[in-house]
Amino acid sequence: MISGPPAAGKGTQCERIVEKFGLIHISAGDLLRAEVEAGTAAGKLAAEYMNKGQLVPNKVVVDMVKHRLAQPDVQDQGWLLDGYPRSADQAAAILEEGIHPDVFFLIQVPDEDLIERVVGRRMDPETGQIYHLTFKPPPKDTLKRLIQRSDDTEEKAKARLEVHAGNVASVLDYYQDVLVEIDGSQDIGAVGSAIEDVLDTFQESSSLDEFQRQAEASSA
C-alpha cells in the first residue's frame, strides 16, 4: 500500500514501482469508476449511491477491491493498492477480508513544501502536460496558454492537506507493523531509490523464504 498527501509525488512513485517490480497498480477510485462504467452488479449498486450524491458504502468498495485482488494477474504479480483505505472503517473492513499489505509506504512532505508545489502547478490545455513555474518551468512559447486548476490554490490545498492528515491518522494503527515512512521532500530519484531499497530487501527475503520452503519439501 502507498499513501501520501496531494503533490507528494505518489503518482510518479507508483509508476516507478510498477515499472520495476511488475506489481498491478490498483486505485480504489479508478476501480470504482471502471465497475460503474462496465455496469457490473457492484458498479450498478455504487452508481445508485453516487447518483443520489451519497458516499458508496464501504462494503461495496471492499467487495470491488477484494474481487480485483483475486484476479489471476494480481495473484501472479502482486498488488500495489494506491490511496486506500482512507478511514478506520475501510481499514477494518478490508482487514476482515484478510487483505493486509506486506509494506505500507507513507510519503511525508512538509505542508509548506506541498503548498508551494500545488500553487506553482500549471497545465497546458493543448497537451495535458503539467509544469511547475519553479521546479519544472514550461517552454516560453507555451506560457500564455497555461492554466491553473481551480483547486490548485493555497486555500484549497490547505483544506485537502487537512483531509489527508485526518485520513492517514485514522488508518495508521492498522499498519504499524509494516509502516515505512519515506522522506518525500527529496528529489524524485532519491524518493524512488528509498522505496525500491525496501522492496528489494523484501523481495530478496521472500525469495529466500521460498527457497527454504522448496528445500524443506524436497528433503521431506
UniProtKB/TrEMBL annotation:
Q: Which domain of life is it from?
A: Eukaryota
Is RNA-binding found in the keyword set?
no
Could you list this entry's UniProt keywords, alphabetically sorted: Kinase, Nucleotide-binding, Transferase
Q: Known EC number(s)?
A: 2.7.4.3
GO molecular function annotations of the record: AMP kinase activity; ATP binding
Q: What SUPFAM superfamilies does the record point to?
A: Microbial and mitochondrial ADK, insert 'zinc finger' domain, P-loop containing nucleoside triphosphate hydrolases
Family matches, as InterPro entries: Adenyl_kin_sub, Adenylat/UMP-CMP_kin, Adenylat_kinase_CS, ADK_active_lid_dom_sf, P-loop_NTPase
- Is the keyword Acetylation in the record? no
Pfam families given in the database record = ADK
Q: Which family does it belong to?
A: Belongs to the adenylate kinase family.
Name of the protein in its database record:
adenylate kinase
Per the UniProt record, the source organism is Apatococcus lobatus
